[in-house]
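Expect chain and fold; see below:
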Amino acid sequence: MSIEKNLHQRSGSSCELCSSSEDLSAYPIPPDADDSAEQSILLCDVCRSQIENPDQVDINHWRCLNDSMWSPIPAVQVMAWRMLTRLRAEVWPQDLLDMLYLDDATLSWAKASGEGSSDSALKHIDSNGNVLQAGDTVTLIKDLTVKGANFTAKRGTAVRGISLVADNPEHIEGRVNNQQIVILTKFVKK
């Protein structure tokens, strides 16, 4: 029996990530797939194109991972982990990733692609495209109402010695008016 037939039988002829039944084909899990059914999953064209072209990802399409991440098939777990890791800058993928448990062998396989490694660490970018580092001084580019502190941080205010929010590249922390606040990176410049 061919790999694709095995995958159709295993998945009930639906995409193993989003459950679509359109345009299905076998997808060997990189980087070391041996073209066996155990190291492949059945994917629709939409999932395949977004996996292979990270810049064209429709984040709402991947809400399907809420269900598919619980699959007992290790290959499906690996792809769910990789996509959730890729999308973890958003809140809901990070929440799902926090819930997902993979045994050591499956987690090693998931990390083998380099997804989620420190090499692909999140970069905090200011409004001008400059990379921010912990300890930098930034300037606010607009007035910001600080929720819960009852003041407005004025445009032009210097925020010294910022710290980076590790799991969200759009957030930094700094002191304004002697209050530690979270600031969106799109509202600061280096």
Observations:
- The chain has a mean pLDDT of 89.
